[in-house]
Each structure stands twice: as C-alpha cells, then as structure tokens.
Design a protein that fits this description.
CATH architecture of the largest domain in chain A: Alpha-Beta Barrel
CATH class of the largest domain in chain A: Alpha Beta
Number of strands of chain A: 29
Number of helices of chain A: 18
Shape of chain A: globular
Number of domains of chain A: 2
Largest sheet of chain A: 9 strands, parallel
Largest interface: A-B, 58 and 60 residues
Radius of gyration of chain A: 26 Å
Strand order of the largest sheet of chain A: 5-4-3-2-1-11-8-7-6
Oligomer: homotrimer
CATH topology of the largest domain in chain A: TIM Barrel
CATH superfamily of the largest domain in chain A: Glycosidases
Helix content of chain A: 25-40%
Distance between the termini of chain A: 32 Å
Chain lengths: 661, 661, 661
C-alpha cells in the first residue's frame, strides 16, 4: 500500500483541502461544486470534525448526510480523504465519560467547548475512537470516492490524569523490566526518590522544585508510544475493511509530542500540516524545513502536504497575510521537496466558530477575491505537474534529528535556557538552505554513509549506539560537523563522565569538553578568526584535533573553539560556541566546499531556491522559486511545465518547474 | 424619581465621599464632624462594607451603630447615600454557603479574606442580598438623612461555577428558544460541538484550544443580565419601602463586564467610580472620557461622580500622587460634563486593611496637610456651583459604543491582538477632546440624527439593525467616520460574507473590504497623503467612494486606504488602517471642520478645556480648566462663580466656572 | 555546646561538602577516599537525601549502608556532618499520608517526583521527621565520625492546606488571645472581614482582590514559627542522644520565609547555603552580604558556610561558571567574615537526577580538571588557616534588618512595586562594602550602642519598641541614617498617623513625612546638590532638622529631600528618595567620614577587599582579596598564611591571609 496508489487514483498530484460542508447549506454546496471545478480541486478531506453528526448520541450513527456528500463529491470528480472524527468528541461524550477528559499537571480538568477534549490513555475514549474508525471503514471502505484515510487530526493532546498514570506504569514496566532498573535509570538515589512499588509512580505532575528529568523524558516517550498505539488501533480497524492507504496529519513545526520517525514507519503515507511563523523569505525557509522533515520521516518516499493556510502566517499575537504569489510558491516549495500535492485548511472560511479568522481557499469575501484567484491559479499549476508523481528528492547532506534529544532539552535544571533544540535545528537547516543545498534529516543511529556531510546541532542526548554510529560514519570517510552541547548525556539522561561528549564521538572528533560555560545574556565574544559567538562556550581540550579557531578572552583565552580532526577516512569538526548567523553560514559554506556538496542546479543568484525531483527512470525536474526582489536569470533555458514553454528568467516572486535535460 | 430630587434635598451639588466610621472610634467621629463642616461635605456614602456589622450572624441584625451614625451625620448637616453591603459577605457566609463562593474557569474556588466572595448566580447569595436590601430599606427608607440608595459596590465579579452554569442555561433557553438555534448561533457544526441536551451546556471553562466565540460572547451577555437582575432585585426591595432614588456605582474605565446602557436605564441616577491611570493632561483626558461615558449611559441626564481618589493615579505597578490643584480640576472636569457633584473614596484614609494606601480626603498625616487643604478648597468651590444643578451638556459629535462590540474583541482566535476596543474608543475620544469638542457616546442602534458627526472605532461586531441604522443616519445627512475592522461580524459573531462590513454599511460607505491584513509588530507604513499607520491594513475596493488616501507599498500599493462617499444627504468616510495619533487628530479636525462642529467657547489656546452646561431656561455656564503650563487668556471676561468676580485669564492649573452671556 | 568544639574536633577549619555516596558504586567510593585526601577534605555532610534508603518502608530502617560509609569516612580522616533526611520524603510517604502533601494557595496539591513534598504543619509529617531524627541520633549520637548534626535542608517549603489552617489558628489564638484582638489587628472592619469564630480563619488562599495584609503578615510569622518548632523537635530528639552541635543550613539570599534571628538563637552553630546570582565583583559583594548576614544571625559568633557551588553562579535563566581563582576567593570571602570553613554542594557532580548540572568538587570531567585542581588548592589553603578558628569579626556600622519589615513589603496594595526590601538591604550593604567597611546586620529592637553608624533602609514596618530604640540610639550619641519609606506602619501594619515615621523616630530625625509620592517608572529627578534619584519621593517637613539637599521640581520644589538633625548626643539623617548608586555611595562615604569609621586595613586600592578576624587573645588576621584587574600593593609587607611567607602585593585575583602585627 503506497502513496503511488493515491496519485494513480487521482491521475496526478493532489490539490484541495479540508471540506466541512456541515457548516453550510445546500445552496453553498452547489456553489462549492462549481468552485472546486474552477479551482482544480481533486481531493477533499471530509469528516475531521463530524463526530457529533456521525454519532449524535452514544451508539446511534447517522450516515445519511455523509453518504450524500461523498456521492456529490464523487460525481463532481473530487476524491475524498475520509477522516475519523476522533480529535473532537461531542459534548455528550464529556457527560458520559467524565473520567476521559484531559487533566493538566496541576490537576485542572479541561472540558468541552473547544476541541481535543479527551485523554488518549482513557479506555472509554480509546474504545470510542476505535469503534468510530471501524464503523466508518465498514461503511465507506470501498466507496469509490474514498482514496485515503485520515486518522484523527494533529495528535498533540497531553494528559496527566490517573488513567494516564496507569498506562504510564504499564509502559514503564515494559521498558525497564523492574523497579530497580527504573530507579537506576531515573537516578532516584538523588533527592530520595526511590520507588518501592509501581503504584507510587506518577506522571510528572506539579512539584515544588525541578522534576526528575528521567521521569520527564520517559513520560514524553511513553506519551508518543501511547499516541502511536491509539493511531495504530484506528489504522488496523480501517485496514480490516479497506485497502485505501491510511495516514494521520502530523503537526509541524513547533510541536514535539511525538517521535515522528516512529509515526513515519506506521503510516502508509506521511502527511503534515504546515503553517509558517514569519513572513517573506523566512516563510519560504520554514516551508523547506517542514518539507525536508516530512520527506525524511517518510524515509525519502513521497509524502503529502495535508494542510497549509492560503493567507495565514502565524506571527505570535497576530496572523499576517501572505504576499501575492505565495500561495503558489509555498505549494511548490512543498511539492519540490517531495509532497505529492498541496492541500489547505480549509476549503471555505468558517462563518462562525473558533476558526472564523483562519484563512481558506474561499474567503469570506467569496470567489471574487485575490485569494480565490490565486488558489485557482495554484490549482491549475499543480494540475500540470502530474508527471512528477512518484519522483523523489536526493540530498548529500543530513542534519541529525532525534526526539529524545529534543525532549532532553525540555527537562528542568539545565545549564542554560538558550539550549533550544528546535532553534538549533532550524539554524542548521537554514544555513544549508541559504547555500542552496537540499538537506535530509537523519536519525543519529541510522546508516549515514550516503551523506557527504552530516551536521549535529544540539544533540544533547546521544545514545551509545548513536555515538558509535557517528564514529563509524567519520571513520568510513564522512565529514561530521558537531555543534556545542552535543553528546552530554546518554539515552537515560545520565551525564557522560570523563569529559563530554560520549567517548566514541570524542575519538572521532579528537577533542574532550571539560567544562560548559554558558555566556551571559547579551554577552558576545570574538574568536581568533574574527567570528563572533553568543550563548554558550566550552572549555575544550584538543586530543588529536587541529585548532581552527580559538577563544580570545578570559578563562578560555587561547583554548580551542573550533576544531578539525582527521579520523579514519573522514573528518570530525567540532564547534563549541554558538556562532553568529553570518559566521555560521560562512563555516557551513566552507564545509560544503570541502566536501564537494553543490546545488543540483548551480549558478542561481541568491534568493532563488531550486530543488530537483528525480524519477526512477532518470527524468528530473527542477522546481525553481525566486524569493528575491530582482529578476533572476536561469543558467540555461528549460521547458517549464507551468507555462508549457521555455523559460530563461524568473521575475521577482516567479516560479517554474523545469524539465531537466 | 430623578436626580433633581437629590440636589434639591442637598440644596446644591453633592460633595463628600465614602464614610466608614466603623474603622474608627468616638474621638475620631467627633473630629470627623468638625472636619466635614470645614470641608463643605454634604453627602456621605455609608455602609458599603458593613455586612459583618449589620448581620453579625445569619439572620441577626444589629442596627444600633448605624442608627447612631445616621443621626449624627444628619445633625451635622450631612446627608447620607446609604449602601447595601452586599459586595463583601462576611467570613461566616463562606462557611454557611460554600456553594456560593466564586469559582474560576479552571475550577479554583476563591475564598474570603478580601472582598466580593460570592457567586452572583448562587441562590443563597441572591436571597441574602435581597434580604439585606429589604431590611435596610424597611428601617431607613424614610430616615431624614438618607437621600440616595447605593446598591452593592462596583459589580465586576465573575463566576464559572455550577450555579452559574444552571443560570446560564436558563438565560440561553430564553435567548435562543431551542438547542437548534443555539447550535446555529454558536456555529457548533465546527469542531464537533453540537449540543444535544441543555445540561451539556457550560460556561466557557478551561479548554485546550480556542473557546467557542459565540459561547464566550453569550456568557458575557448572560453575566451582564444576571448582574442586572441581581441589581434589580435589590432596587425593587428598596423601592417597596423608600421613595429615595436608587443607584449603583459603576466601575469605569477598563472594566467591561456589564452592558452599561442597560444599567443606565435601570438606575434612578447613573453614578460612576473613576480613577485615572496616567498623570497630568492624560488624567484630564481620561476624566473627560469617563464623564462623557457616564452622561451618555444616563441618556444625557445629570449623573453623579460617586468615587474618585484625592491623591491616587493608578499607574500600573504604582500609585502616583496628584499635582496641586488636580483635586479641584478633576472634580470640575466631571461636573463640567454633567456630574451633580464630586465624591471621593474615602473620607478618611484607612489605618489598616487592604486599602491602607488608597488616598482619602483626610490622609494619614491628618488635616494639617496639602491634601486636606485642597479637599476643603474643592468643597468650597463645589459649594458655589449650586445654580448648575439640573443643567445638562450638549454634543454634536458621537462616538459609537457597544458592549457587544467590546466583548466581540475579547474572544479567542482573532486576527490580531492589537484589535483593542477600549484603546480604540479612547483614541477616538481623545482626538475629539484635543480638538476642544464635547462628545457623546451613542449606541449603534439608537437614533443618531441629532449628531453632525458620528465616529465608529473598532465596532467589530455590528448587528443588522445597527448597520441599517448607520446607513439611515448617513442617508439622512449625517457624516459617519468608520474606522478599520468595523462590521466584520453580526450579533452572533457570524462573519459578514461577500466582503466586510455589513452590506447596508458598505452601501453607505461605498466600499467593500476584501481582506484584512494585520501589519507586523513594529511595522509602520506610509499612505499617499504622507500620513502613517500601524497595526492594521485592509484590501479595500471603492464601490462608489472617492479615494482620499491610498496605500503606497506591497500588495496594497495604489489601493484605497481612506475613502469618502456621498450617500443620500450625507457622507460616509472609511479609514482602513490605524493612523498615528497626530495624523488621526488631523483627520478628525478635518471632519469637524467639514461638518461645522466647533467648541462652544471658541478661541481658547491648546491645553485649555472648556465645557458648557445648559439650563432648561437658557442659562449657560462654561467650566474652564487650564491644563497647560502657560497662563491662558479667555476670549472675553466673564463672571466666575468660583471667585464670584470677573475673570479674563487663567493661570497654569487654574479653573473657572463662567456664567455665559 | 559551641562551634569551637567543631573546629577542635576537626583540628582546624572545615573543608568539604555534601557527600551522597548512594549515587555511586564501590569503585567510585574508593576513588572518593583518595580524592578527598588530595583535596584536603575533613568534613562531609552525609544523608541529606537518604530517607528512602534509611526507611525503605514505613517503620523499617536500614542502617547498614550508612554504618559502612561513616566508618569508611572516619577511617579516611573525614569527619561527618550527619543530616536528618527529612527534606525529601520518599514516594511511599505520599501514598501513606496524602494529607501531608503541600497545597498551594489556589488548592493545587503538589506531589513527589522532586523534593520537599510535605506540609510542615501536618502531624503525620512532623511525627515522621521527629522519629527519624530520634533513631539516627540514637544510633549515631556517639559515632566517632560524627561532629555535627544537620537537621533537614533549606527550610523553605510553604503550605496553605487544611492542616496548615488548623495550626495557623492555634498560633493566632496564642498571639492575639481573642478574636476581637485579631479583628482589631487585621483591621477587619474594612471590607467586612470580621471573624466571629476561629474556624472561619484561613491561611491567605486565593482571593479576587487584595488579600488582608495583616493576615498575610501573620501567616508569614506563623510559618516561620511553625518551621522553627519543626526544627526544634528534631534538635531536641537529637540532643536526647548526642552531645554534638546541631544546625540547619539556612538558605541565603533571596528566600525570606523564616525569621533568621530566631533561628540564630536556636541552632548551636549558624550555617548557611550561599549561591551568588551575578558573576565577577558582584559575586564577591554578594558573598560579603551573605556572610555578614550569617555572622549577624549568629550574634557575632563563628558560623559555617555549609554550601556553595564550585562553578555555579545562578544568573536567571542560566548558570554561569566561575572565573579562575573564584573558588578560593569566595571561600576566603566567607571565612574572612567569620565562617569556620568552606563547604560545597556537592562532592561529586551527579550523573543523573534533578541536579545533574549543579557543579561539584569533582565535576563530570573528573579529577583531571580545572575545577578539581582549584578545589584542591582551596582545600590546601583552608588547611593552613587553623589558627583563625574561633576568632571573630568586628564592625562599627550596622544595617538594620527585620523579617517583619521584609514581609510587610510583600503584602498587596502598597503604593509602589519598587519598594523592594531585599534590594534596599543589598544596596545599603553594597555601598558600605565598596567603602571597604565591615558591616553587621542588626535588629531594630536590639542594643545598638556599639555602632558608630546605623543605616535603616526600607524599614517600612517599625514596631513601637524599635522606634523608641532608634531614638535612644541617636540620643545616646549614635548616627542614624534612615532611608525613604521607613516607619510607615507598626508591627500590626497599622499606618502611623499624623505623618510618618513613628513619632519617636520623627523626634530623632527632626522631620515629618506628609505624603509619599512614588515617581513614575523611568522618571529621574535632580536634587539641589546635583544628585539624582528615582522610584520614590516624599513631601517632608523639617521639624528641627537642617536641610542638606532639597527637591528642585514640581510640587516638592524647594522642600527638603535630605536632612540632618542633631538630637541628644547624636545625629539623625533622613533621605526621602532613592539616590542613584554613585550618589548614594558618596553620601555613605560622607557619613563614614563624619562618624570616623575606617577600614581596619586602610590604604588599599579600590577593588581590594580586606576583612579582619580577631582572636580573643588579641591576635589579628587580615584576609585580603584582590577583585580588581590590576596588581595591588599592600600598605606594608605582612606574613601570609597561605604562602607561609611575607607578601607585599597581590596580583589580580590574588588572596592572602596576613598575620597582623
């Protein structure tokens, strides 16, 4: 069961979005049919928030309305991504199962009136969710409109209730085997936390001081596994009745409640929701970051952009609109990096309710609007890209990415609040994006031999296996670029003794970190090569490595800041401080140069992004987007699928999908 | 029953304040009598916090102490505004009625040790409050000292408890009639929120994501109505025994838990508490803002400043003192705009308790103090203004003001946190105040024909009736100045489709808003006329309107920013961005000029405020206050009531009440 | 029972730290033995977090492991400070005694998974704690290794539960005698808070508005007394079995849940934990501040630095490392001011658990590290200072310090958030430290005659006895320097009437404060002598005092800002605004000059700190630390204990302990 089947069924890439007809009436449905045709919509996600309609009272189902919508869509040539509506139980569920509501770490029980009012670990909720998936699949498993199953929506709800505590204990028993092992793993000898019976073990609820970090990390792992189990139950219930592929839309970026590598293995098709948090070129970089992560979680296979906004950039306390052309550019940005289409939340902007002001394909203003015109233009463009279906993306550089490492930087009592995993990951990716290079994300324990360069930012937690793997990678000829605060702890959050990082990595890098020395807020230091750094520094000993740049002031004056080590057939670089962005970019460029990594479509001016998709039969397409304010000359004229003609230059904001020769 | 009776009984304007003799002993009472005479006090508010004394245990009343104080005050020539003490139940009430304590949205139950420890919707509390009002009125309804009833104190307490939930359901049934109507109004089709029984409906308690906005708005409306019902019960209990007017002191500004138009209709005399939040000229503008609102809620009738501070400006994390003369200027600022006197909280600064540091007429330092001398000077001044009693204020400009619109901007999920209703209201009023023009506030659905200019800032919610009313106003010859983000939703928070604002208003303005485009934080744009704007912009189409200024950059370049439309006999202006203060002031000045609105006492230099009170018989008085640092020449010498002589100039900080010729 | 016995038993000053061998295995223990010898460790604190090991289930004790460690340490020449492990109940305690968990003011019940999971007022906890102390003392009371008892750890846990409420009522009955007295003290006449039965009285839990300040202050006092009672119970249980001195490590600075004067009287040896919050010279000043407080709480007797960090400065959201030499300088900074040694938390940096990143004597990197080398160097230095044991420190200046005054500035409803007691205390101490003068802290009611100069910063609360005491001090020839906002309330938080401060102090100062006038945020004013001030000003009348500097602007122009009054044989100075640091330092220097207070080792350049310890037999030692960046010449060459030779200059960062001639 592969995504290939999805594009086959659609006859091309997917274009469309979440469709919630239950918010509207028959007259609007008719207009929808017409507008979907005008916009080139071929896929609609239906039923995400329909529990209350589908099961108006416990055990009584009403399918008639859904039958009608599916038939109408099918007749109109729109395929359906059918959702299980389990992300939003109706109010009756609260009253029937008050013990299945989510509870905060301080004991506050949340209630309905919003969405996601459930505890994923509560048996009553799980039974209900599995039951819904089963009845839906039974009824619609072979419906001709249905081409994809959409389990749940954005699994990000947490809980600390007693049901959760019970499930956590089951998970801990399986992980640790014995209380002794748990006590050892969590370091409960400190602060007198030794557990002497399983029933004493709780989720990390409100405490007076720092919580036990091992408990906090295991709770994150448990919750990811518990969520995965909930997903699997629905998936398996669907598979019993349907051969269509099953996915769940993963929430990117900024949420990290799940191990997305795990999810990538359990879905038939990775799909993500992606909303940028800054406008302009930052949104484009953010798009690439999200898309590269999605492709990586999919193991390099094609994936699907399930949700984006037509006119929404979430910028803190406001939502900014998009600039002209961004709907198309962002859509192509995802497709360039492996998405088999571009979908939106949602088709029609809500007239009422919590997301009235979330943008949509048909805005409040109606079809006579810039937004709808750009949507239709984008739909037409996507419609011309059918030949890309099934092609993939290649990268020679990887950034290491591990949920454990992320969670490890979320515990209490760390040396600095500036150890921000997500920010470090984005920074590393951004430097590579600015250099025009396509980047994969990779797990520290996976085979890395295919990459010329591997970057490890803020990998605070690194397992024994990961450390050995990285040493093997360098030894085998790879270039590894490790950044500060990496490898300080093992997978139980136990500190590495005798100097950081873990010994195998020290060997590959030829260094030993004796002391971490966070910089003062606002402090900015200068290295011997004139570069600048903030936030962090380390007292480092070269043990075989060559010093490329050293510290110049204070305790660390004259000691190494940036080192390079030849080890086996490869090289290990270590950067012990957080370089300023431009200095960091210059260093990354140097490493790319040293490793011979080049853009696949070289010769483009700055601000022009190009990514290449490769078909199994050798065909290639360059997706090119000009994010700059100046026209950009292409290195050579090529055939553009969007205009079906040759293109040799792109205006500001312009895009092309070029058939490579 | 009118306020006229109050000033008749007092023989002039009111002067005095809250008097809490239970905090002091007999020796102090004697001094109080003497000092009140020296200060010209003729009205004291008694009993606001006396529940614990009046009813020391449930059902047992002690009136002796109150009898004595009322008699003493009466003997001393001080009339009494007698309060029902229901704003602060005593500790025994907590233990007797734990289910009547207020509960937060997260379930935290508050307790005594402060004040306002009750749920207004709890039957036990309501019974107790009504009972207290009744016994007080029965005993003191005809007491010769009592000239006014003061129900409760500053109704601003909210609650989310189960008692509240029950009352909310009763209110919702009455408003919506059926669950189907409620589901339609709240847009529960979205996020699977459909209610299938009334008992599922809750107040908007803690949820994980955005709360349903319709539920949030209805909860605000319900709570205002519930509060009004609680007020009415007390009022009616009093009326059964007393013919004195009844009021409740409304808390201004910054609190918006009540629909103050509704309260204005149910009290015999509007009274407000007013504390500025910034010093100097800002405090004067704030005073005018509060006073104009109070007069408007009173339907133009005289009203009463029930509380102000003698030496307190609440400036965030500190209280600033007032400057010399401000006690008088602020008092006159209220009287100028229709207050029938000037009262303070409180007579004597508390020696202990939560408000030890709240200023008073007699400060800790005692009568030999600047504060008390200024109080006495102010009392003498107010004493000379008896002839103003019953006169009123006239305005040719109105700013639209609607609680629904305020509440509509308090819900989750709006496009920008900079849509601040209160700030927009103050800004509009301030520009008019700076121009020397007296301003009314008006409800969008009320008859507006009397105004030459009507300003509508941030009226995000506008009902169908309101939109029709505004169109009628313009058509009939009025000039309407609508500012950005107005009329986006109807009174159920349903978005206006086909372009904002509501269709009748679009017609009057000759424009259609296609897209809202919040600006980035710190972003500042320039319009074609050189003015600047921040926070917000809109993609606007002129549909009949003339473009006065247009955008100059980005997506909106060349499109209209400020428009004017001739419609019927009037004009509709639309401003789609938030202008800088000076540009906004210039635009307002242009509109005043265009509509022929002029100060009633023209020719005054900037920084000199003048307001005119009009008697029914044609007499007029100009209250003039020089807030500037320079002496101010008056246009002509007039007789000043304060000095009982002619005045032709005011020193910095000086005031006069001039008999107009 | 005195600390003398401790240094006698140790044969010199103490050096070592918290030792938690239960986190490690036998191999590490062996290395510990060797490294402790290398580092000169002679005292280890054992058992602080060992409840779970000592009492693995309720009532079953396991001493074997502790026996072994004590014997091993003893054999290795390391004495033991044996702790009762009551600061961290094990998880089983939560399940056995859920009613003994701590509860926040909003009702949130905290749980285990961290430390300090108990309510100090819960009988079940108190019984358990007393029992543990008793069994430990019974078993180890005469153990040859044990030289000191360490009750609990950092008593800073608060609680608002029903057990606390019950204990609070008992305390209130004892303090106030009757409900009438309590009502009078708390000013319950205001806001209708009168209590009519004891069961109505609660801890200050969540309320809607300002809490009653008297209740808040009494709750702080109660909690300090309750904590002291808990300490005493353990101490007495220990004394029944052991003649070793008993202490509890007090948490400095920034915590103020305890009246440390009271604790100073109940411990056999004052001991403190001290962690600076800023690097560099600020850390040195902070060290002096903490050490002077500790010595003062000890009544001038020797005391002990129980905890410091080797490489940790807590700077908000990060921990900064120390600079080279600071481990020694900070240790000497404490010893200079009376500490009988220098101990650390902890011996070996944790490999896991909540404080993995808290620095230690043996860091993660191991003994081959800068940190361990500096530790060993410091141990060697401390080892050479045996002759200082028992010597004391003399001061001619005192800063007044009162928990009541601190707590008085923590209540709701004060005129300004900038009335920060702790900051004011530090500022006063810092100005004296910068001037090279050794400072005591003193209680306002204690005999002050021995001091030439007494400084009173932010003593908002001043009891009648305190006011009389200060008047007596001035009258008797002292110089008293009182700063703004002092003496506004008495010990019941009742405002002083007729002008602040309390009358006896007004007499001594020859002034009367009529009005407080907080300055606006960011406002900075100029006084007539050119000095500047922020945050606060006062309207002051000179009543006998001479004006030294006056205000220059606004309402206060021309009125006194700084005054001096000759009263009896002394002088009272009053400063009514918060001077800028440099102006404040200049004024303090002027006062030191006027009172003839000089450094004990004069002639040192700025940045060089010197403190003198005095033996009973007249011997003296100057502990000198150069915090500056330049070499510092000493006034004369003296014999340095650290190098056992003459020293005439100190390099940057250098230290010496000079035998005075």
């Amino acid at each position: 069961m592969t995504t290939r089947r999805l594009t086959d069924r659609l006859g091309g890439l997917a274009f469309g979005g979440d469709y919630n007809p239950e918010q509207w009436d028959e007259e609007v449905w008719k207009q929808d049919d017409e507008l979907m045709r005008r916009a080139g919509v071929n896929l609609a996600t239906v039923g995400v928030f329909s529990w209350a309609l589908l099961e108006p009272e416990e055990g009584r189902y009403d399918f008639a309305w859904l039958d009608a919508h599916l038939d109408r869509l099918h007749t109109n040539g729109v395929a359906v991504d059918l959702a299980t509506p389990t992300a939003s139980p109706p109010p009756w569920f609260t009253l029937a199962h008050p013990d299945a509501l989510p509870v905060g770490p301080d004991g506050t029980r949340l209630t309905h009136g919003s969405r996601d009012t459930y505890c994923l670990a509560a048996p009553a909720y799980r039974d209900a969710a599995r039951g819904l998936a089963s009845v839906l699949a039974e009824r619609y498993g072979d419906h001709p409109a249905v081409v994809l199953w959409h389990v749940h929506n954005e699994y990000v709800t947490l809980c600390w209730c007693d049901r959760t505590a019970a499930a956590f204990r089951v998970w801990l028993r399986a992980r640790h085997g014995s209380l002794d092992a748990l006590n050892e793993a969590w370091g409960t000898a400190f602060w007198s936390q030794r557990y002497t019976s399983w029933e004493q073990v709780l989720p990390p609820r409100a405490t007076q001081w720092h919580k036990n970090p091992g408990q906090a990390l295991d709770f994150r792992r448990f919750w990811s596994d518990e969520t995965l189990a909930a997903y699997r139950e629905q998936r398996d219930a669907i598979r019993a009745h349907s051969d269509r592929p099953v996915t769940t839309n993963l929430m990117l970026p900024g949420y990290q409640n799940l191990d997305l590598w795990d999810f990538g293995r359990e879905v038939d098709l990775v799909s993500i929701d992606h909303y940028p948090t800054a406008p302009g070129v930052d949104a484009a970089a953010d798009t690439a970051f999200g898309a590269d992560r999605a492709r990586s979680f999919a193991g390099g296979a094609p994936w699907l952009l399930m949700e984006q906004g037509t006119n929404t950039v979430y910028a803190g306390d406001r939502t900014l609109g998009k600039e002209p052309g961004e709907i198309l550019r962002h859509s192509l940005g995802h497709i360039a990096r492996g998405s088999e289409g571009a979908l939106f939340f949602q088709w029609r902007q809500s007239r009422a309710g919590a997301e009235t002001w979330h943008s949509a394909m048909v805005p409040h203003a109606g079809p006579d609007s810039r937004t709808f015109r750009e949507v239709a233009r984008t739909g037409a463009a996507v419609g011309r890209l059918g030949e890309l279906a099934g092609s993939t993306v290649r990268a020679e550089v990887a950034v290491l990415h591990d949920s454990d490492a992320w969670w490890a930087l979320d515990v209490d009592g760390l040396p600095s609040a500036e150890l921000d995993y997500h920010a470090a990951l984005r920074r590393a990716h951004r430097a590579l994006w600015d250099a025009g290079v396509t980047t994969d994300f990779a797990h520290p324990e996976q085979e890395l031999g295919r990459y010329r360069l591997v970057v490890a930012p803020a990998l605070f937690l690194l397992s024994d296996a990961g450390a050995v793997n990285l040493r093997r990678y360098v030894e085998g000829g790879g270039t590894l670029f490790v950044q500060h605060a990496t490898g300080y702890v093992d997978d139980r959050l136990h500190a590495r003794l005798g100097g950081y990082p873990a010994a195998p990595l020290r060997e590959a890098l030829g260094i030993r970190v004796e002391e971490y020395r966070p910089l003062r807020r606002e402090e900015r230091i200068t290295l011997s090569d004139g570069s600048h750094a903030t936030a962090w520094s380390e007292s480092l000993r070269a043990e075989g490595a060559e010093t490329i740049a050293s510290y110049t002031h204070g305790l660390l004056a004259g000691t190494p800041a940036l080192t390079r080590h030849s080890f086996g057939a490869g090289q290990g670089w270590y950067l012990s401080a957080r370089l300023d962005d431009t200095d960091h970019a210059a260093l990354v460029a140097r490493l790319l140069d040293a490793t011979g990594v080049r853009p696949e479509l070289p010769g483009l001016p700055p601000g022009v992004e190009a990514v290449t998709r490769h078909a199994a039969d050798g065909r290639r397409w360059h997706v090119v987007m000009n994010h700059g304010a100046e026209p950009a000359q292409l290195p050579q004229p090529l055939h553009d699928l969007l205009t079906d003609g040759p293109v040799s230059a792109l205006p500001p904001g312009g895009c092309a999908v070029l058939r490579a020769r």
